[in-house]
Backbone:
């Protein structure tokens, strides 16, 4: 009588998820400084918003991150909450000419957005690494290979 090999069911139990915890704030702070969230030494980016393929110091693979549009969204939220109240306060108290106001707000918005974009993306990648999201889960079967999410 033949016996069919039985695959053990893939059920999550606490022991199967016993990977060591990663500190979220440390990883995000390292990412904000554009450093590797695991070792804090290697550079995370090879271009302005292009992550390196892996950490040059510890070899952590960065290709699994899925920051997508979240960094840009967060930068808009943060910069908007600084520039808009500032503009309202200046208009209410001093009401300078529109040209002067635009000459102040537009460069502030542009420069602060560009300055924040890379650190915020680093922090988002650090967050994903700390929570083992997406490609940072070394126990997953990597079935979500990102055909739809680019
Ligand atoms: Zn590293």
Residues:
């Amino acid at each position: 009588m033949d016996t069919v090999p039985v695959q053990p069911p893939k059920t999550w139990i606490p022991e199967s998820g016993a990977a060591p915890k990663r500190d979220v704030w440390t990883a995000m702070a390292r990412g904000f400084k554009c450093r590797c969230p695991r070792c804090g030494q290697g550079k995370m980016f090879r271009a302005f918003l292009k992550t390196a393929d892996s950490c040059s110091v510890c070899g952590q693979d960065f290709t699994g991150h899925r920051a997508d549009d979240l960094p840009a969204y967060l930068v808009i939220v943060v910069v908007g909450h600084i520039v808009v109240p500032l503009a309202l306060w200046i208009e209410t108290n001093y009401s300078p000419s529109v040209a002067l106001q635009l000459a102040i707000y537009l460069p502030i918005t542009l420069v602060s957005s560009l300055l924040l974009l890379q650190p915020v993306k680093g922090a988002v990648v650090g967050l994903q690494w700390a929570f083992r999201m997406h490609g940072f889960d070394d126990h997953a079967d990597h079935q979500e290979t990102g055909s739809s999410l680019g």
